[in-house]
Amino acid sequence: MTSYRCGDIIIIKKYIFGGWYKEPECINAWDFETDTLPEEKTEMKEYSGGEVREEAVYQETILYAKWEIDPEGSENQ
Q1: End-to-end distance of the chain based on CA atoms, in angstroms?
Q2: For residue 8, what are the contacts with CB-CB under 8 A and spacing of at least 6?
Q3: For 6, phi and psi rounded to 5 degrees?
Q4: Are 14 and 73 in contact (CB under 8 A)?
Q5: Is the pTM value of this prediction over 0.70?
Q6: For the chain, what are the domain ranges?
């Protein structure tokens, strides 16, 4: 909720959640039914002492939340 003061009137704007998006500009919505996360990959890592282990490597996935002003949520007080 954001509020602004204009003289003796306070305007309060309420926001509604507009969904999850693939980029900060909120152009392409993430579809939880069809979009997928990158595949998990594994790598062999050698540690000091000669120990070799297989480790999972994950690629970062970022989703961006879109917030819109609720047209019915503005209130004057």
Answers
A1: 14
A2: none
A3: -130, 95
A4: yes
A5: no
A6: 2-76
**pLDDT at 51 (0 to 100):** 87
- Say how far apart CA 4 and CA 1 lie, in whole Å: 10
Task: Note whether 3 and 13 are within 8 A (CB).
Answer: yes
Neighbours of 64 (CB within 10 A): 14
pLDDT of residue 77: 43
The predicted-structure confidence for 21-53, as pLDDT tens digits, reads as follows 999 999 999 999 999 888 778 888 888 888 898
**What type of residue sits at position 36?**
T
Tokens for 6, please give them. Answer: 């204009």
